[in-house]
Design goal:
Length: 185
Amino acid sequence: MNIRLLAVFALLTGISLPVRAEGDIEWRHRATQGAVTLSANPLGLASRTAFYSARGFAAEAIRPYAQACGFSFGMQNGGTATLSTRLADWRAVGTDGRAVRLRLPAEWDLQWAKAHVPEAARIAFRWAQFQAENVFEAGDWIMGMATLEAPLSGSFRLVARYHDEKGNHEIVLDKLACGHDSSAN
């Protein structure tokens, strides 16, 4: 793998090199429900701007995405049953009870199309996102980025819903906060 790509990925996910497997990532937030694990790391403006600029986005085009409250998520099915999840069913809930949905990758893609972002950059964006709908067989996992539709101040919780043969379930990540870095000020 290209060392620059690996270094940017490490920066975005907050991991130390060398990266060998998903288990090597130092996740800041992690929760488990049954055999399903959800992990998250907040992402700052500078890291997302650098990541997507290196993939063909003009700085002004990627700015709204980079300024949004964003995370790198990992989800793993450690069980034997198939499960599914839809990003549209996930919510961030502030301490005041205000719920904010996650902005779906297709919504960002519409914005990129209107801004005439090159197709190659848009493909790179889609590949780096937590997919809008996922089906996990036993042992499957996914990593990807996602943003909130609107910022929440202070800490909040993320309620991630998924479905398996036993019904609907939720995993809750508590005490999340939007990532901040010196470039965001």
